[in-house]
Amino acid sequence: SQTIHQWPATLVQPVGSPLSLECTVEGTSNPNLYWYRQAAGRGLQLLFYSVGIGQISSEVPQNLSASRPQDRQFILSSKKLLLSDSGFYLCAWRLAANYGYTFGSGTRLTVV
Amino acid sequence: KNEVEQSPQNLTAQEGEFITINCSYSVGISALHWLQQHPGGGIVSLFMLSSGKKKHGRLIATINIQEKHSSLHITASHPRDSAVYICAAVRGAQKLVFGQGTRLTINP
Question: pLDDT digit string (tens) for B77-100?
Fold first, then answer.
């Protein structure tokens, strides 16, 4: 069966420090992968998506970047965190368009 | 105005009550998702629908494409149903546009 792993679950980082959040999917090949963010008191927002290795599309210009070094690995990064990067980050996958989404358990990031 | 609007924002009910959460959208979509987010933050996908009605256990989701409206119903509600329920509209090939969520609290 397919599973999605996301870590860490919580993270407290100082302003200006780097960030790396990792998401991996098991049990499927060539999934569509997504990073979403939920800022405090706000709805979810799509940050990046990838339909294949090395293919990254950005929805919102920001301080973050994403990479897909392997078929089932999706990484969210920042070189220097801002206070406004605080939020709840969710990774998700689906087999293709018109399929349902499966979400990871999320990472709660607090930038201090 | 948000592209996807949910109502109510907060809902408190007694165990056993029939619950309805509404979702309206203002743009063309190919499908709509209903998601459940628990206090820890994890999200579970409940339904994906593009027409008609779907049922899973005590949960029922309906969508009216012409009226750009979807509803999520919970029959015989239980305290474990307490969560935030989010509708998300599928726009284009990859983009989900989320409602702001409805916080549901079921009291025993």
Answer: 999 999 999 999 988 777 888 999
pLDDT tens string B31-66: 999 999 988 778 888 999 999 999 999 999 999 999
* Pair of tokens at residue A106: 């999320």
Inform me whether the C-beta atom of residue A95 falls under 8 Å from chain B C-beta atoms.
Answer: no
Cα–Cα dist A86/A4, whole Å: 22
CA distances from B18 to A30, B21, B78 (A): 41, 10, 10
Residue B36, token pair as written in the block: 């459940």
Structure tokens at A7: 């870590």
Query: In angstroms, rounded to a whole number, what is the distance separating the alpha carbons of residues B42 and B37?
Result: 6
Kindly state the greatest CA–CA separation across chain B. Answer: 42
Chain A hits for B94, Cβ within 8 Å:
32, 34, 46, 49, 51, 57, 97
Beta bridge partners of B21: B72
Distance (Å, whole) CA B7 – CA B23: 7
CA distance B34 to A23: 23
Q: Which residue has the tokens 């948000």?
A: B2
Q: What's at B76, amino acid-wise?
A: A
